[in-house]
Amino acid sequence: MTSEPPPPPRPAATPEQALAAMDDLIAASMVGQQEMAQRLGLNVTDLTCLGYVIQAGEDLLTAGDLAHRVHVTTGAVTGILNRLERAGYVTRRPDPRDRRRVRVAAVPSAVSRVYALYEPHYARLNSLFADYSPQETAVLTDWFTRATALVNAYREELRDRQEH
Q1: Which is nearest to 71 in space by CA: 48, 54, 55?
Q2: Chain centroid to CA 39: how far?
Q3: What is the DSSP letter of 132?
Q4: CA quadruple 129, 132, 134, 136: dihedral sign
């Protein structure tokens, strides 16, 4: 039985180099998201909410869930959902357990349009992840998860400071 050769050694990097690389990724992603949103006739915030709705699949989110995930008010989410619904991307369904709430479902044809746009990009990213061992991918996943929590916590801190 032959085992695969070990991956080539990765160059050492300082936290400063990693931060600079992350900043470059964020900038490229922000511009890319803007371009993707324009192609879909949306703004970036609406596209972000649509992404969360699609990610949830059959476990439909409430407007409150979306507000929490995007860190906006429920009033802002109402406007977002109105635009997404008018554009044919989502529908609202009554919550079967609480008729006062609605759940948001992605329209299947809209999901197909979003997937058609994003799948080539995600295929390339998956190919990149394949260059890493499962252990390295676990570290990347941990880092992405923890960095996201840090970013969201800092955004909340900034909002709290602004309100006081």
Answers
A1: 48
A2: 17
A3: S
A4: negative
Q: Give yes or no for a contact between 102 and 62, defined as CB atoms under 8 angstroms apart.
A: yes
User: Amino acid letter at 123?
Assistant: A
Alpha-carbon gap, residue 62 to 54, rounded angstroms:
13
- Is the per-residue pLDDT at 5 higher than 80? no
Contact 105, 60 (CB under 8 A): yes
Instruction: Report residue 2's pLDDT band, with 50, 70 and 90 as the boundaries.
Output: low
Q: Which residue(s) pair with 92 in the sheet?
A: 104
DSSP letter string over 54-113? HHHTTSPEEHHHHHHHHT--HHHHHHHHHHHHHTTSEEEEE-SS-TTSEEEEE-HHHHHH
The 10s digit of each residue's pLDDT in 55-89 is 999 999 999 999 999 988 989 999 999 999 999 99
Task: Tell me the two tokens of residue 84.
Answer: 């997404």
- pLDDT for position 7: 67
Instruction: Show the CA angle centred on residue 143, arms to residues 126 and 70, nearest 5°.
Output: 85
Q: What is the chain's mean pLDDT, rounded?
A: 92
Cα-flanking dihedrals φ and ψ of residue 2, to 5°? -100, 135
